[in-house]
Amino acid sequence: MDSKLLLGKRAKMARRRRTALGLLIGTALLGAGTCAQAAPAESSEFRVPVEYYKLPNGLRVVLSPNHTSPTICVGVYYRIGFRVEPRDRTGFAHLFEHMMFQGSHNLGKMEFVKLVQQNGGTLNGSTRFDFTNYFEILPANKLETALWAEADRMGGLAVTEENLKNQQGVVGNEVKVNVLNRPYGGFPWLDMPQYANSNWFNSHNFYGDLKDIDAATLTDVQSFFKTYYAPNNAALAITGDFEPAEAKKFVEKYFGTLKPSQLPPQPDLTEPRQEKEKRASKPDALAKRPALAIGYHMPDRNTPEYYAMGLRR
Amino acid sequence: MGTTCQTATLRNTTQWGCDDSLLHQELVERRGYTGDVGGGINLLGNMFNYHGPMLFLANLTYDPATSSDTILKSIDEVIEPLRTKPIDQKTLDRAMVKLRSGLYDTVGAQGGFGLVDLLASMALFDDNPSRVNSLVSEFQKVTPALLQKTASEYLRPANRTILLVQPQAAPVAAPEAPAQKQ
């Protein structure tokens, strides 16, 4: 599901990743300097600087400066994950993620990637349960470049029928490489939600049926973009070596003019309390040894029980 | 495994599979049924960057000579005591150390992206990215009694799904007969 696996040039970055899916967070250690710097001298409590505000168009902006190294990281998160993609378009949220690299008002196909890489940076995008994200890490003096580019594609895509067809092929190949033609493909991350959950939003094939992926049209792409890729459905977070006052000016300059969308209500994602153990079996023609996964429904987020489960070992 | 385990709670990795985890101890070290136990909360992220229902997973591959029922019996021998007895404070304290270590690791990960991920997720889902600074105190409220109560409800057998992958070699196609020479 991760873009590093998806696109031609971006796929090269995938080699740096430790696993095929999901490891958004790498192993590099910045050290405790960041937090120690922000923490009260007498406390060992975890604390990082956080400045949070919203633009009039609804964009949520989070600033967390840290001058440990001369780099910045910019992340744009859209509240549209694979859970809530259209029912007859499984895999669409992920397919759409690809389209965000196919061109915008001022950047041609794949020029976003070139812009970041030629300025010494790295980037990625991912589709997850409840969001699709895009981020880039750049030298600190390129903060304005990153914000300009992210705002440019939030402001409008310039996708074509040809680009869509091309990316449908890329995504289809990704499904084949990561799931269909791989031993234990999709086990357990893609499989288990389909067996354990009963609400369609939580239990459909997030990677998508190949026929659904192929059925997507340019109109679908444009409609999806217009609905979900709007400032009032997004959060922009900036960390690293920057001055908040300057960052705010850039954010206002590039994102401030973007128009909000009319967002549909969030679907009901709730699952009923499970009252009976479920068992399922999946034949795998490529696997050499049996495998077993066991999945328990989690407590609701941010409850005392949720934190307790987080400490379970 | 060291670094992975320190960040277990915060990442999509092996909360169950850390060398000192109960399942690892039972299934890898004691029984030798498998070489690794994977899993955790939200395999495509971590326990903070999702919004809807989520699963707490463990997974492993094992030798065909061992039955799935045997594996499950051992898992139950680990899980059931958690539901009926409180853990000791020392074990809880150690989990907290790992939690805090993982949080620092996450914040510094990948050129600041780890922190971006937490802040953006909490802005989107909670409208409160400052929540990142109260995470440790929320975990510190967890007591052995709360752990037991939580396990009693959420680690009960009726709350789980078991998925087995069965190797099933595709039939080998018979070689085509050579064309008859005319």
Descriptive account of the structure:
The complex is a heterodimer of chains A (313) and B (182). Chain A has twelve helices and eight strands. By secondary structure, chain A is α+β, with helices and mostly antiparallel strands. Chain A has one domain: Metalloenzyme, LuxS/M16 peptidase-like (Cytochrome Bc1 Complex, Chain A, domain 1, 2-Layer Sandwich), CATH 3.30.830. The model of chain A is unreliable at 3-42 (pLDDT under 50). Chain B has 182 residues and is mostly helical. Chain B has a two-stranded antiparallel ribbon with strand order 1-2. Strand 7 (278-284) of chain A pairs parallel with strand 3 of chain B, so a sheet runs across the interface.
- Kindly provide the name of the CATH class of chain A: Alpha Beta
Strand content of chain B: 5-15%
Q: For the terminal residues of chain A, how far apart are their CA atoms?
A: 27 Å
Task: Give the distance, in angstroms, between the N- and C-terminal Cα atoms of chain B.
Answer: 65 Å
Number of helical elements of chain A? 12
**Overall spatial form of chain A:** globular
Name given to the CATH architecture of chain B: 2-Layer Sandwich
Helical segment count of chain B: 7
Number of domains in the coordinates of chain A?
Answer: 1
What is the number of strand segments of chain B? Answer: 3
- The helical percent of chain A reads 25-40%
Rg of chain A computed from alpha carbons, rounded to a whole number of angstroms? 21 Å
Summary, kept brief:
With 313 residues, chain A is an alpha+beta fold.
Write the layout of secondary structure elements.
The complex is a heterodimer of chains A (313) and B (182).
Chain A: H1 8-14, H2 33-38, E1 51-54, E2 60-65, E3 71-78, H3 92-99, H4 111-118, E4 122-127, E5 132-139, H5 143-155, H6 161-180, H7 191-196, H8 200-203, H9 210-215, H10 218-228, E6 234-240, H11 244-255, E7 278-284, E8 291-297, H12 304-310
Parallel strand pairs in A: 2-6
Antiparallel strand pairs in A: 1-2, 3-5, 3-6, 4-5
Helix pairs in contact in A: 3-6, 5-11
Chain B: H1 2-6, H2 22-30, E1 38-41, E2 55-61, H3 68-84, H4 89-108, H5 113-126, H6 135-140, H7 144-154, E3 160-167
Helix pairs in contact in B: 2-3, 3-7, 4-5
